[in-house]
Amino acid sequence: MTRPETAIILAAGRGTRMKDIGLLHPKGFIVAGTMPIIEQSILRLRTSGIRRITIVTGHMAEYYGRLQSQYADLIQLVHNDRHADSGSMYSLFLAKNAVDGPFVLLESDLVYEQRALSALLDDAAPNLLLVSGRTDVGDEFYVEAVDGFLRDASKDREALLGAVIGEWVGIAKLSEVFFGEMVRHAEEILQNRLRLDYEESLVATARSVPVRCKLIEDLLWSEIDNEAQLSRVRDIVYPSILARDGSPK
Fold it and tell me: Which domain holds residue 105?
């Protein structure tokens, strides 16, 4: 399979669970160490050979406009002007014209070690979902797999009937064919409701186009959805990533 040189970052949401922090700036501009976490992602993606990054903006999009001016040769922006009443799949749907081959899909509120990207990009599977071991953060999104392939995912572990292999990280590698099917799945639903999460469409599409799960038990990573997760990132996760990888460059 052709190695992806494109990435899409979903960055439209306000992050209501971040309370006042979400009113100051987008979640991607939370600082861990010395720079915003979105900029860390951009540098890690560039180090991994990604040449074009599409960021889907929404809440406080002007922040991303300034970021684009810093990385004009790398970043393009797509704006979701319905970000207040839509879900992440609608944002991804808006970016469909940016897809002309395989790509890396990730969320803007993540911190992660470089190994997360290299593990995905070095694997020959055309469609690959990154899965970690147990984090105990209190907001886990569990992944069910059969013979290593995605079958279902849920925040309610009891709703999953098969083998739960780990937690959804929020980074995936998708082929153009898979994404085309994912868009077709979403189109009909989006005609009636815009609040559709990309995870729902990805899982539904995986029932017809297989997605392999890449489990890394000891992966250092975290999303930042609330103040407790932010404290954990600053006190534990990011210092551990820094010790392992150094600062992203």
Answer: 6-245
Nearest to 125 by CA among 178, 185, 164: 178
Contacts of 222 (CB under 8 A, 6+ apart): 110, 111, 112, 135, 137, 229, 232, 233, 237
Could you tell me the CATH number of the domain that includes residue 207?
Answer: 3.90.550.10
pLDDT digits (tens, 9 = 90+) for 83-118: 999 999 999 999 999 999 999 999 999 999 999 999
Q: Total domain count for the chain? A: 1
The runs of H, that is alpha helices, within 122-193 are: 176-190
Residue 20: half-sphere exposure toward Cβ, Cα within 13 Å: 0
Paired tokens of 171 = 């980074």
Indicate whether 1 belongs to any domain.
no
